[in-house]
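Chain A, query sequence.
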Amino acid sequence: MRERSQQEVLQAVGELIANCGYNEVSLVSLSTNDYPGIDELVASLCHRYHNLALSLPSLRIDSFSVKLVGSLPRRGGTGLTFAPEAGSERLRRIINKPTAEDEILKTAAVAFDRGWTSLKLYFMLGLPTETADDIEDIIQLVDKVRSLGRKAKGKRPQVRVSLSTFVPKPHTPFQWVAQEGEQQLSSKHEILKLGLRRRGTRLSWQDPKVSLLEAALSRGDRRLGKVIYRAWKLGCTFDAWSEHFNYENWLGAFNETGLEPGFYAQRERPLDELLPWAHIAFLKREYQRAIDGRETADCRHQACNACGLERWQPDCRNKASAAQLSLARNSSIA
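Chain A, predicted structure.
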C-alpha cells in the first residue's frame, strides 16, 4: 500500500488550481476513509482553498463518513457517491460489508441537510447468493433515500443509481463463483428500471457483455494470450470506451482460438480445481465464511486473519488497508 503525504496532496491541489483553471478536486482511493488523517486533510484543503469543490468518492457508509461529509463546506462539490453494494443487510454481510441500513440513511440525511444536490448510489448485481428479494431491497432502499431528499430544504436533490455486474476475480474468496448470464442480469435490470422509474430515479448500468469479457480475462489462463492478440489484430482498441467496444470482434477472437468466454466467466469452479494462482488457503476459508454470512474483522484492529500477506510484508497489520483485507471478499474492491 502506498500513500501520498498530506503536504504532498495540499501542494498538488494548489498546483492544479493554479495551472489548470479548475477548482474541482477529487480525492481518489479504493477506500477514502482508510487514509490516515483524512478528516484533517479535508479540513486543511477547505481552509486553504476557499472556492474548492471537493469530491470524495469511495466513502464507506458509517459514522465516520457522516462526520467527514459534515465537515465539507456547503459550496463544495455537487455530488457524493456512496457504495451500499447490495440492497439487503444479509447480502452486505455476505461480501463482508456489514453496513446497517440506518447508517446508510443517516449518511444520506447529513448530505442532503448540508445542501448536496446530487447523491449517487452504487450497487452490484449478480453477487453470490443474490435473490429476487435482494433486488427489491435495492428499490426500497433507494426510495427511502429519496424520501430524505424530499424533506431537505432548498433545491430538491437528485438520486442516481449506478449498477455494475459482479465480476469474480482471482486472488479473492469468490474466485470460484460463476458470473451470472446476460439473460439473468437483463431481467434484474428490467425490475430495477421499472421500480426506480416510478420513483423518479436515474439509473445507469454497465453493458453485461463488457462484464463477461472482464470476468473471462480476469480468470483466464495463458491460452487467452492468443485471444487478446487476435482481438487486437481484428481492431479491438480503446475497448473501455463504449463507442470503440466491438463485442463481435472479441467473440471472433475466442472462436478462432477454440475458446469461449463462458468457460472462464460463467462456470462455477470446484474448490479442488487447479487454478494458475491456486496456493492461498486463506481464500477458501474466506469463501466458506462468506457463504455462511460470517463477518471477517479488520486485521488492523484485531488478530491477524493469516491471509499470507505477512510473508512479503511482515508489518502488514499496520499497513494493509481494509480494502485489501477486511473487504477482500468484494471483488470489485479487492
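The two ends are 12 Å apart (CA to CA). The longest strand covers residues 118-125.
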